[in-house]
Amino acid sequence: MIAKQEWNYIFNPQSVAIVGISAEGSVWSSPGQRYLAALLEYGFKGKIYPINPRGGEILGLKVYANIRDIPELVDYVISCVPALATPQLIKDCAAKGVKVVHFFTSGFSETGTEEGKQLESEICSLAYQGGIRVIGPNCMGVYCPKTNFTYRPTFAEESGSVAFICQSGGNATYLVREGAKRGVRFSKVVSYGNACDIDESDLIEYLADDRDTEIILAYIEGVKDGRRFSRVLKEAARAKPVIVLKSGVGEAGARAVASHTGALVGAEEIWDGLLYQVGAVRVCSLDELIDMAVSFSYLSLPLGRRVSILGMGGGAAVLATDDCTNAGLVVPRFSEEIHGRLSSLLRTEAGAILSNPIDLAAEAWEAGFYNILNVLADCDDIDLNMVHFPLGLIGFLPPPEINKMWDFLMGEVVKAHRELAKPIVAVIHIPTSSEDYEWMLKAQRKFYQAGIPVYHSISSAAKAVDRFLSYHERKLAGG
After folding, report:
1. Are 13 and 149 in contact (CB under 8 A)?
2. Which of 13, 228, 415, 477 has the greatest count of CB atoms below 10 A from its CB?
């Protein structure tokens, strides 16, 4: 059990020492320098102490020869020294009264060697004896925007309600950056690596009670204590949505996991059963993890599974129907009354399809998405409206005009979301040029600022909506 004050040292340290830093080379030339620059650029409010035996100065800060030489208290230490130097570092930290050591350093159990395993065991034993909590080894550490604490200066500065625990530093970085583009903001992110001390169960248990966190995401390669993990996960899932990506369930994946963090893994069937029993949501990729964070952050709960599909491109509409049906959603045909009301909005039905999916073709500019969505708001056979923007598929307008049309339709969707009661999701897909990509980024920002969830394909949107609905259906059923 980790005490409340220990968590405070992890997410809100008042002082940080970075061990293994050099005054030589560029600011970004080594891990130690990168951590230092990240904290400074991000505006960390606490004290920062660079450590290197040769002393000196870097970025206006004095470099201390040893952590014992720092005159003030040190809460949190980031280790960027070689693995063989870590036992002495732990001894120095214990003598100084350090509360937390985060090991960016690798070369421990993830190597698969007896030497690496023994070294990891040694530093954990020394840390326990010295009253020190360990994050890692072999990880990126902590990102907590509320306290201006980060390992990447480019991460969003706004704090949010999504927490993410991740054994992989690279995957944590990817998810934070890509999630930010779609409006996901984080309360706390922890890359925890080999988990020799603080592990997935500790983190989930803490986040289940964390007032700043409403949604928990987890990328897990393996667990240390299966029974405890199951219990903690079940308790957390009762309190808030928990979405889990479990990697390494196949034979080849298991080998990759063992070489990455030295974690123990389990069969896919076991994980499927466990996550279903405890009420967690399972996903199969990092992008699906982001999709679910978007869904739980922005999607209003539809009354059911019946969806309308609105966009342009007949082929895309056909595939959209298959994607929704395969995901467990229903794409009903419109009644004659609804069809007639939709038809009255068009100058001509030539090239358009109004039977669900709705393909407006060239008439989109004339009819507008708002008028269509206004009709669908009165349709008792529809619970959710899915609007897709098939960038790169529309060739009846030159580039300057097509962007004007996309802007117009984007505004129509935002207006409909604000004025109409029925939930809307937006799909922006197939960016085939740099101009399309830039428009997609702009549109995503407009949509999430308005509170509209955005996905990158009909298939991913349908899967996310299905998982979102399944979660709430189980909650309502008491499961």
Report:
1. yes
2. 13
Q: How far apart are CA 246 and CA 393, in angstroms?
A: 35
pLDDT (0 to 100) of residue 348: 67
What is the DSSP track for 396-456?
SS-HHHHHHHHHHHHHHHHHHHHH--S-EEEEEE---SHHHHHHHHHHHHHHHHHT--EES
Q: How far is it, in rounded angstroms, from Cα 292 to Cα 467?
A: 8
Count of residues making up the chain: 479
Q: Which of 88, 89, 104, 133 is nearest to 35 (CA)?
A: 104
Q: What is the average pLDDT value for the chain, to the nearest integer? A: 90
Determine the average pLDDT of the residues in 437-466: 96
Is the per-residue pLDDT at 429 higher than 90? Answer: no
Q: Give the distance from CA 52 to its chain's centroid.
A: 35
Tens-digit pLDDT profile for residues 116-129: 999 999 999 999 99
Residue listed under structure tokens 């080849």? 252
CA gap 239, 352 in Å, rounded: 46
d(CA 42, CA 280): 33
Q: Where are the beta strands (DSSP E) in 148-250?
A: 162-166, 186-191, 215-220, 242-246
**pTM of this prediction?**
0.93
Number of CB atoms found within 10 A of residue 336's CB: 8
> Do β-strands 15-19 and 47-51 pair in parallel, antiparallel, or remain unpaired?
parallel
Residue 268 to residue 406: CA distance in whole angstroms: 43
Which residues share a beta bridge with 246? 220
Q: What are phi and psi of 408, to 5 degrees?
A: -60, -45
In whole angstroms, how far apart are CA 275 and each of 46, 128, 178, 241, 326?
39, 32, 25, 12, 22
Q: In terms of Cα–Cα distance, which of 286, 427, 436 is closest to 369? A: 427
| Banded model confidence at residue 250, pLDDT cuts 50, 70, 90 | very low
**Are the CB atoms for 181 and 158 separated by under 8 Å?**
no
Backbone angles phi, psi at 455, to 5 degrees: -130, 165
